[in-house]
Amino acid sequence: MTLLSCRNLGFRQPLGNAPVLEGIDLSLEKGELVGLLGLNGAGKSTLLRLLMGFLTPSVGDVFLEGRSLRERSASAIARHLAYVPQSHVATFPYTVRRMVELGRVPYSGLTGRLSLEDRLAVDAALERMGLAGFADRPVTELSGGERQRVVLARAIAQDAQGLLLDEPMTGLDYGYQLRLMALLADLAREGRLVMLTSHRPEELYVRASRVLVLDHGRIDADGPPQDVVTAQRMSALYGVPLTQTDHAGNRFFHHGRDET
Amino acid sequence: MLSVLCALCLGRYPLSPLRVARVFGSLLHLSPASDPVAQVVVMQARLPRILAALLVGSALSCGGATYQAVFRNPLVSPDLLGVLSGAAFGAALSIVSGGSAVMVQMGAFGGGLLAVGTGLLISRTLPGGGILTLLLGGLIGNAIFTALLSLVKYLADPMDQLPAIVNWLLGSLAPSGWQELAWMSGPLIVLTVALVLCAPVLDVLSLGDDEARSLGVSVRVMRPALIVLATLACAMTISMAGIIGWIGLLVPHVARLLAGAEHRSMMPVTALLGAAGLVLADTCARSLTTGEVPLGIVTQLFGALAFVLVLRRLRSGVA
């Protein structure tokens, strides 16, 4: 079932000349794990922010379950879509629990007390992200990876059918990168739409069910990872010669032309 | 409570707690009115001033906490968007044009709002629309009104008006009487309570624009609304007591050390601490020397010193 879609979506900066994005047609289904590849500045973050309703498109429209985001209130969007930014800047030392509780704001309202259901959702999210033991620590004392887990726990507590993540693997250690991708695959399998921007085609090849390539503000490729994440396309995209080796469901890229 | 008691007793004419209690007793007809001197000191001089300090202290502190959360910067004070320079300009203009005390107050209030309004309007014309554009707009508004203040100072009569301006800028609760309290207390209490009630919104806004929006909070509506509330509160305190530095910056930090960062719990503490702190500062201002030290100097001096202690605790990872 389609959760998010857009037709002929375009965006340009208020004073910019060249459009950041143009002619984007997409239909994103529940249960998909969508990876978004592209060079720095290709418009990946802008696309996510348009889909979240943070930015208003210059052309076209974004539809959430068939209704334009322009017609929906911020809290209605928040009950459908959760967002994980590239990095969370912790200004004030809120406790981990309070941060995750904020994920319930779309339901409880800003001044409302948390209901039993809200509390259960918060506890479950803390548990799932392995943060139960951290609940009373201030977020300012956490490492970047731990903080990322807190923001992810907040998104899980938000109980949204769509989860959009902007380069969630930046700054995470290798083990946590792998665990994060497994977790995102689980969240998609449970029926959510999970969409992330990434600079790691090999990881998307294993985990994603669909990969988009964004190039100069347009969608250059859209399909299953086997078809999109190929040496030929990645070479063209990143401008480096690559060869690929497939092994046990993985695809590895090597820098340099295949000599054989 | 303790600071109010100290404030009632201490001063150029020290009173024992017993005499103060008797004054209140006689008011409630519990004891005969036998101490006219104490009655005048308490009822006419000290009590209105203490009540004014309570109101101004809590409003300034809550305004400061709100500004810090909205601008996601714990080192921000309520004058970030130019409310102080605007108020100073308004007051100075009223003094130069020979206005009455009430005119000076109105000038300060109007000037403060005008400066922030100018800053916000300028930021609307800039591309972008995040915190940075707000700050830049505020910076420009601030600069304009600082320049205008300098102009008024330059044109002011150096024998008579200039000292009045300088004196006003130093901040004091000395002119606070019952009449002033009567019409200032209502709005100040409403604004302070509103700021305390809005505390949970601050948690969300302080996460940043995208995250706040992803949690369903309309940043475009809530942020200006909170800025307006906090600015109104600060402009009122300025028109009542002149420029009282550091309270709005320091008190929220101390409250965070005591009650945690969550605004729902720290905001009421901020209000109480601000009230108690300013009463103490004002008591110092009028009792330390035989004359009266302007309140703004006391809060500035003690505030700066106290901030060192707060920062040391913050840096050592206590909060």
Automatic annotation (TrEMBL), chain A:
ABC transporter domain span: 4-241
Cited InterPro entries: AAA+_ATPase, ABC_transporter-like_ATP-bd, ABC_transporter-like_CS, P-loop_NTPase
PANTHER family: HEMIN IMPORT ATP-BINDING PROTEIN HMUV
Function: Part of the ABC transporter complex HmuTUV involved in hemin import. Responsible for energy coupling to the transport system.
The protein's name: ABC transporter ATP-binding protein
Record keyword ATP-binding present: yes
One of the record's GO molecular function terms: ATP binding
Keywords: ATP-binding, Nucleotide-binding, Translocase, Transport
Pfam family, one: ABC_tran
Domain of life: Bacteria
